[in-house]
Amino acid sequence: MPITLTREHDGRVARVGYDNAGRGNAFDDHALRELVAAMQSAAAHPACAVVRLDMAGRHFCGGWDTSSFAGLAGATAESVAAGLRDSDTQLGRIRDLPVPVVAAVRGRVIGFGAGLLAALHLPIAGQNARLTLPEVRFGFAPAGVGFTIARRLPRPQAYALLTGVTEATAADLLGWGLVARVVSDDDLDAAVDEVVAALAAVPGDTLRGVVGVVEASLATGSPERAYEISAATITSREVHA
């Protein structure tokens, strides 16, 4: 499953591609770690202002690769829980990137894909995108995805999704704040281009400041870090004025 990293606009835009389209862009431990490492490398470049995540093929993410389930035979609850925590830790590293991640969300978002979607900063969905959580069909209660859905959705909708009773439409994802915009499928790539271009026009340290304000505010529930981050960007602009 090739993972690529290219840079555009004098390094201000990093494009990270994930291509496991033959399996609906499903993930296993190795693929997730490789993707996160590529995204961290992309964001670490001093010129980088935005990361564009390109998921190949017709679907955003087919969830966790079911071929890995055979490896669970004989596993203890403790070892499985450790693996689940590690997957969430990897997603947390995407959420903690210092620059925004923009991605087109098309087709199916299945299981683990909901966690990946929630880790992104500016996902934009095509109108026919659909989110489903099929874990119960395998006899599993959702773990990290369950936590994410329970925290982000109204309680009845969380139960409906997590039990597989319903699926979420693109309009649902927008209403729940899991995507930033919904556009027609035909306009999806152009909409992502537009957002990436707009972000690339903003000074990189300002964008990093915005990410810092949002993430610190969500993590702490306090405006203190926002004051400090904003002050740093203000004084930096004055110095360079």
Textual characterization of the structure:
This protein has helices spanning 29-44, 77-95, 112-119, 144-152, 155-162, 170-175, 188-200, 204-220, 224-240; strands spanning 3-8, 13-18, 50-55, 101-105, 108-110, 122-126, 130-132, 168-169, 181-183. The chain is α/β, with parallel strands linked by helices. Helix 1 runs parallel beside helix 2, helix 3 (112-119) crosses helix 4 and helix 4 (144-152) runs antiparallel to helix 5 (155-162).
Profile the largest sheet.
Answer: 6 strands, mixed
Tell the overall outline. Answer: globular
Spatial order of the strands forming the largest sheet: 1-2-3-4-6-9
In total, the number of strands is 9
Helix-strand pattern = EEHEHEEHEEHHEHEHHH
Secondary structure tally, helices? 9
Residue share in β-strands:
15-25%
Low-confidence blocks of residues: none
C-alpha end-to-end distance: 47 Å
Query: Rg from C-alpha positions?
Result: 18 Å
| Helix proportion | 40-55%
Mean pLDDT over the full residue set: 93
Which structural class should the secondary elements be placed in?
alpha/beta
Characteristic key phrases:
single chain, 241 residues, six-stranded mixed beta sheet, 9 strands, 47% helix, 16% strand, globular
